[in-house]
Amino acid sequence: MKRALISVYDKEGITEFAKNLSLLGWEIISTGGTSKILKDAGVDTVEVESITNFPEILDGRVKTLNPYIHGGLLYKRDNKAHVKTVEDLHIKAIDMVVNNLYPFEETINNPKSSYEDIIENIDIGGPSMIRAAAKNYEYVTVIVDPKDYNKVLNELKDHDDTSIETRKYLARKVFNYTAYYDAVISDFFNGEENIKYPERITFPFKKVQELRYGENPHQSGAFYKKASEVKGTIASGNQIHGKELSYNNINDANGALKILKEFDEPTIVAIKHSNPCGIGCGENLLEAYIKAFECDKESIFGGIIAANREIDKDVAEKINEIFIEIVLAPSFSEEATEILSRKKNIRLVQIEDIMKNNYEELDFKNVLGGLLIQDRDNKLLIDDLKVVTKKKPSDEELEDLLFAWKAAKNISSNGVILAKDKATIGIGLGEVNRFWAVENAISRAEDKVKNGVLASDGFFPFKDSIEILAKAGVSAIIQPGGSIKDKEVIEEADKHGMAMIFTGMRHFKH
């Protein structure tokens, strides 16, 4: 008679599976709560204590850590020495393990969990048992996912055993499962000890969905989210209308959220290809939308809009005048939802806590053969500004300069932002030459540039950019400073009666 050891935290489908396994002639071994559920359902069950000849001890911390369990799992059935050893020690084969682990992830995500609760939900016996079974997959079937119950039962009914291909598939799932489980635990302890860059690092992410394709149709892709729940992110959003998000949708939406979180007042951010094509702040969201739209009426078409206030009827009607891929907001009024849902191709994503910005997360970027990791760029130093020109900016100019500085922090380098009345009017970004970025911003601002202000994510290496900004009518500039040509740049600004502020901090975004 073949034997299966069943001990699961997630009891979904387990009684039906065990009943069918018993009908196929398998002996069921079980522990604690699982054993009680199976017996109550009428499944004959052998207590694990009768196999180990040892009681569960230490409040259940030790129950399957025993040679009679691991010997029965790990011996090679076609190795004469192994077979003799288990026979001499009266160890019987265990041919299947059905197990899933204590809910550590759910426990750390529950604000009511105490530290003791968290520690007690670190499973020890379960990972040891399923790893042993997975290592010996040539002979042992191991199931950690209730979705695989029917697959295994169907094979047993047809062939009296699972195929080697199925056992290998199940073993692969075990090692993915335990690696993720351990990564969540290690991430927790790194956080407890405030270890930013541990000697070895594994990121625990869980698949949300496979994507139709990646950045381009010839690339495959998938979307994963962190094990620990992070509020105010695209991963925590609730899509209330529209088809599934694509790779580019998710990436662009994330870019929109990063910019949106810089601003406290009613704000609209319009994004195209992960860069802003318009940002506006206003007394209300409708005013903010109009400002963002006016920055670039063409590029916003087919873009993404993020709002930090509820989308109401008036804003929804404006949005519906053009084609927009996605609207992100903390909430949508009933009227707004009805208006926007008239278009089947728009996606509406509700993100609670959309203004949450106190993340301790790291930014990381994949490179060939490695990984780059850094702090999030969450500093602005707007309390330590230095006016370096003879002319000081007016209160209105200073307000616009700070608005532009927040925006410039979030565009691809080299990048500059032209702004007026807390709205972007011209954006130049992603250039290898800062002068070209300035030229592009001026060109895109057209006649709105006069009396506008400019923010640059990095210093000006030459005075040529200041010359064309002055000629266009720009009245004030904010930039990091730090160039060997700073003196010439300041003198050029003074020559044209412009105000200039140094922040002492650059914001490259590559």
TrEMBL record:
Catalytic reaction equation(s): IMP + H2O = 5-formamido-1-(5-phospho-D-ribosyl)imidazole-4-carboxamide; (6R)-10-formyltetrahydrofolate + 5-amino-1-(5-phospho-beta-D-ribosyl)imidazole-4-carboxamide = 5-formamido-1-(5-phospho-D-ribosyl)imidazole-4-carboxamide + (6S)-5,6,7,8-tetrahydrofolate
Entry EC no(s): 2.1.2.3, 3.5.4.10
Signal sequence region: none
Source organism phylogeny: Bacteria, Bacillati, Bacillota, Tissierellia, Tissierellales
PANTHER family from the UniProt entry: BIFUNCTIONAL PURINE BIOSYNTHESIS PROTEIN ATIC, BIFUNCTIONAL PURINE BIOSYNTHESIS PROTEIN PURH
GO molecular function: IMP cyclohydrolase activity; phosphoribosylaminoimidazolecarboxamide formyltransferase activity
A Pfam entry, by short name: AICARFT_IMPCHas
Record pathway: Purine metabolism; IMP biosynthesis via de novo pathway; 5-formamido-1-(5-phospho-D-ribosyl)imidazole-4-carboxamide from 5-amino-1-(5-phospho-D-ribosyl)imidazole-4-carboxamide (10-formyl THF route): step 1/1; Purine metabolism; IMP biosynthesis via de novo pathway; IMP from 5-formamido-1-(5-phospho-D-ribosyl)imidazole-4-carboxamide: step 1/1
CDD domains cross-referenced by the UniProt entry: IMPCH (cd01421)
Key words of the record: Hydrolase, Multifunctional enzyme, Purine biosynthesis, Transferase
SMART domains in the cross-refs: AICARFT_IMPCHas (SM00798), MGS (SM00851)
Domain MGS-like: 1-144
The name this protein goes by in its record: Bifunctional purine biosynthesis protein PurH
GO biological process: 'de novo' IMP biosynthetic process
Family in the record: Belongs to the PurH family.
Species of provenance: Paratissierella segnis
Domain notes: The IMP cyclohydrolase activity resides in the N-terminal region.
